[in-house]
Amino acid sequence: MPIIRIEMWTGRTHAQKAELARVITDAMVTIAHTTPEATIVIFEDVAKENWAAAGVLASDVKPNKK
After folding, report:
1. 52, 9 in Cβ contact below 8 A?
2. Rounded to an integer, what distance in angstroms lies between the CA atom of residue 45 and that of residue 43?
3. pLDDT per residue as tens digits for the range 14-56
4. How does DSSP assign 6-43, residue by residue?
5. pTM, 2 dp
6. Of 12, 9, 6, nearest in space to 51 by CA
7. Is 63 exposed, middle or buried (0-12, 13-18, 19+ CB in 10 A)?
8. How much is the pLDDT for 62?
9. Residue 30 φ/ψ region, left for φ over 0, alpha for ψ in the -120 to 50 degree band, beta for the rest
10. What pLDDT shows up at residue 51?
11. What CATH number labels 3-52?
């Protein structure tokens, strides 16, 4: 039984997560030859103050203005 864990910043909508769950499950069924019933997708929302890259908290990064 495949278990897929997705960690991402908070803020995605229910509809976005539902679509992600559907397409990821479809991909696992097609590529890994499993079944939808055996495929589990777990979403973990992480606040930007709990996520760092290159030693900088994501909450401290200023968005680029174009």
Report:
1. no
2. 6
3. 999 999 999 999 999 999 999 999 999 999 999 999 999 999 9
4. EEEES---HHHHHHHHHHHHHHHHHHH---GGG-EEEE
5. 0.82
6. 9
7. exposed
8. 86
9. alpha
10. 95
11. 3.30.429.10
> For residue 3, what are its two tokens?
């278990």
Residue 12 has pLDDT above 80, yes or no: yes
Q: How far apart are CA 7 and CA 1, in angstroms?
A: 19
- Domain map of the chain by residue range? 3-52
**Structure confidence at residue 64 (pLDDT):** 82
Determine the Cα–Cα distance for residues 43 and 48; give it in Å rounded to an integer: 15
